[in-house]
Amino acid sequence: MKKSDYIVHNEKILTELPTFVHDYYVEKSAVPLSPATLYQYLNEFHRFFTWMIDTGITSAVNIKSITLTELEHFRKQDMELYKAFLLNRVKQNSNHASDSLSHSTVNRSLNALSALFRYLTEESETADGEPYFYRNVMKKISLVSDSETYQTRANNIKDKLLLDENDKNFLDFIIHEYPKQLNGKRSLKMYQRDHERDIAIIATMLGTGIRVSELTNANFDDLNIHKKTISVVRKGGKRDLVPIAEWVIPYISPYLEIRSSRYFATPTTPSLFLTKAAERPRRITPASVELLVGKYSQAFNSVRITPHKLRHTLASKLYLETHNERLVATQLGQSSTKATSLYTHIVDSTQRKALNNIHKKS
């Protein structure tokens, strides 16, 4: 969905939720959290409050009537029941009871509730300068442990990364080989119109590791091709100046040369990456980036990948080059190295070399 669509949906959901959730929404919209993230959070809140009514934990007859007092005195045992409810839910449109939600999906639901309770007990402020209440039951609720080891996760995604020279090969394929596979004048015409932009988008992600939302929200003035940097807004609203790998600059420059003539950008057009529209150029959406990355990657090696895999690719190659988790975390805009442990398992060949050498020494 477009940003404007998320906002419309959010405002509709808010009409069914308690006023304190509206307060949360207003404050977090100003941080800013993206409308897409807030949309996911509001839906999680709605699910939780619906469950409260369905189980009789609240005496409220509708979600809007649920009170702060009920959340303040919400028991740990009841929150554990809700956690069990999430674990036993089945995926949407599935008729198989065994097709339950993944642990990561359940944890996203719990994290959304943790964000709400943290706001109510720490970040909110009444007329007296105090939070709405102090008891935070979510601090007593642990996330579901991931049944996969880092090594298993690494093996599952490794084949979808563009390691070694495959990142450069991928970009060269889009330039030289992809148009040869196209059948039909319309497909070729669309490729000829957008290929400089598409290559620049993929190259920027491969050369920075930024998220797709960070890329699509970037403005023209955020990119400094001479200093090889791009300024993006990270999660939590923090602006970050991200270095760009030098080798990808030649793939980005051709788009900058045709941005005005091809997409009718003017000096007042803010967005860096554009798409054509009837009246004036528009900012490209994350959904469009998902589609173009999937289209080209499917043609490249028959494996459809997402923009997030481009981020994984950069992180893995950067760790292979530096063996420095802190540096990788900084490049990705992460506050800790917890998430970067995955990349050490993707590129670390020590374990395999040791296994291969066991019998050589005997």
Specify the biggest β-sheet. 3 strands, antiparallel
Report the sheet-strand fraction.
Answer: under 5%
Strand order of the largest sheet: 1-2-3
- List the domain count as a whole number: 2
Helical segment tally? Answer: 16
**CATH class assignment of the largest domain:** Mainly Alpha
Approximately how much helix is present in the residues? 55-70%
Instruction: Average the pLDDT over all residues and give the rounded result.
Output: 86
Q: Which fold name corresponds to the CATH topology of the largest domain?
A: hpI Integrase, Chain A
Question: Number of DSSP strands?
Answer: 5
What does this structure look like?
Helices cover about 55% and strands about 5% of the residues. By secondary structure, it is mainly α. The chain folds into 2 domains: about 5-145, no CATH class; about 155-350, Intergrase catalytic core (hpI Integrase, Chain A). Strand 1 and strand 2 form a beta hairpin. Helix 13 packs across helix 15. The chain starts with a helix and ends in a 5-residue tail after the last helix. The model is unreliable at about 90-100 (pLDDT under 50).
Topology:
Layout: H1 3-14, H2 19-29, H3 35-55, H4 68-72, H5 76-88, H6 103-123, H7 150-158, H8 166-176, H9 185-208, H10 212-217, E1 223-224, E2 229-233, E3 239-243, H11 249-263, E4 274-275, E5 282-283, H12 286-301, H13 307-322, H14 325-332, H15 341-347, H16 350-357
Antiparallel strand pairs: 1-2, 2-3, 4-5
